[in-house]
Hints:
This protein is an alpha+beta fold and 561 residues long.
Amino acid sequence: MTESRSRTSRAPVLIVGGGPTGLATALELAHHGIGSIVIEPRTEVSWLRPRAKTTSTRTMEHFRRWGIAGTVRTRAPLPQSWSDEVVFCTTLLGREITRFDRCLALDLIHDDLVAEGGQQVPQPLVELVMREKIATLPPIRLRTGWTVVAVAQDQDGVTARIQDGSGGAETISAAYLVGCDGPRSLVRDSIGAKLEGGADNRPNFNVVFRSETLAGRMGYGNAVHYWVLNPEQPGLVGRLDLRDQWWCVLMGVDPEQGNADPARLVRNLIGDDRFPLEVLATDPWRARMQNADRYRSGRIFLAGDAAHQNPPWGGHGFNTGIGDAVNLGWKLAAVLHGWSPEALLDTYELERRPVAAETIAVAARNMATLGPELSDPRLLGTDEEFAAALSAVRDATQRSKSGEFHSLRLVLGTSYADSPIVAEDELDCPRMDPDADYLPSAAPGHRLPHVWLRADQSLYDLLGTEFSLVGSMDAAAGRALVTAAESLGVPLTVVELHRDLALRLFQAPLVLVRPDQHVAWRGSSITDPASLLKRLVGELRTAADSFDRRAAPLDAVASDG
């Protein structure tokens, strides 16, 4: 029997859950010089449960900040340039119905719109790259093989009890705790938060399979998705690599049906009941549309699937969790470093919960029309029957699915304009139409408009770790803001641009940019720069208050007691 052991560790931040959102939270904190301990039950990443495959352009921009975007692209089995198309067909060996191009921002290769385009890559590879990056960062300790079994908090901090599979137990203390422990979150239960919403009553069944000959038999060319509108078995298929591994979603298939003969169901998608293939893994699921009624209680926060769950149609769930991690991470770091008050943390839920609600609504709309709704028995009939059905099915598909594959307004258009730490805009700019295509905007609250300054230099590469003042320093507000930041101890990086370029990008000579690359203020002059900065960082406290917070047990590096 393994001897029971117990000890105490401590860190500035304890992260419960080491999936993509938990790892992202640790990376964001480390980006700002703050240590963390991440507790994750899984010792290894499972390659047979690919889960998310779409890494959005915005997530890739965050990966660029952390120095892992290039690694993700290099190791992704499908190069970004391999395809940006989605094909709808009767079966994989059948007839094409319609197709979409420029999908999922995969076409944005060195485009001024973004610092990074989208990337199709299995979630396990993303997690592995993040784990490898974390291994190089001393402020982070990733503890795999451990499970959090209890959490508690008081006015001074949080404690968590963790256990491993061999009888070991530990207590971890931290200033703050972030629950990234998924849909069945212990952390969410511990703070009494409730999920609001429901679930789709239609079952789905994922299958990962191997086929060495399928790609050579298909006549549609390269595509990241193949939507099969076979009335006998509608579904969605894609490649996991360019060798022999594939994934598929069997729509309307419950666990009993799926487990009975998954190979037969996959062959229905292919259109050949004898096609050679090997089933590698299966995974039943139902889509959920749920948002927690609150994301915070005292020193404990929720992020990712612990806070919200949405249908996968459009590929937003995993990416929304990364956005949570960045938003919460920079704010926790600002408070722990002492240049923002704890009230700044109240803006996490204010900013991110509406984003999750909108994402859930968009994904639910995408889910309203899937393969079963689009399929028509005539598509598998004679040439005449196929021709008779084609026009109506094609029109319905183009009308209902275009927004699913072209969603930059949601991915890049997130705005925190209503946040208390965002200034009112000096310019009279109308709010973006929810149904309009994405147009870059430097209005406060929006993502900073991007441009490539040189072939190898993004504007984003010049931004500082904390706040950045970007534009023409000839404007009087520039010098005033720099002086105020120095006086208040707010970290500020100056990025000087030619005035004409600043006016073209921002419609103002200067913008003040938050650590998450969202605009906090734009303009040319300021009557009270100190008051503005205080508001944008949550009303700074006195130097003594800041010292008191830093003097608490908030070591910069996670440590054992």
